[in-house]
Write a structure and sequence with these properties.
This protein is an all-beta fold. Helices cover about 0% and strands about 50% of the residues. It is globular.
């Protein structure tokens, strides 16, 4: 069983930056591809970004390309989401996820999920 705990959420201004962290515990962190998803009130959960466990491979949703960067620190079993140039539409609960299957954007391939951290972007 993998446990994931997100942190770093909060209230930021439009155009500001925020870095989310996801700390993992359990089986080898390097055996998992990691992803970030988000869900706003009344909206479906959507893919944000993902990173592989081996080769430096990443995936990003079109809505965040050029603004968000996903990275991982295997020594600390932590994945990060650096968010820059934040917009009001980025407001959502951000969830960290892990998969032992493959890197991808589909929620169903992710085996483990954190509880989420709230990000609110205001004017």
């Amino acid at each position: 069983q993998v446990q994931l705990v997100e942190s770093g959420g909060g209230l930021v201004q439009v155009g500001g930056s925020l870095r989310l962290s996801c700390a993992a515990s359990g089986p080898s962190f390097t055996s998992y591809a990691m992803g970030w998803f988000r869900q706003a009130p009344g909206k479906e959960r959507e893919f944000v970004a993902a990173i592989s466990w081996g080769r430096e491979s990443t995936l990003y949703a079109d809505s965040v390309k050029g603004r968000f960067t996903i990275s991982r620190d295997n020594a600390r079993s932590t994945v990060y989401l650096q968010m820059n140039s934040l917009k009001s539409e980025d407001t959502a609960v951000y969830l960290c996820a892990a998969t032992s299957v493959r890197l991808g954007i589909q929620p169903y391939i992710y085996n483990y999920w954190g509880q989420g951290t709230q990000v609110t972007v205001s004017s």
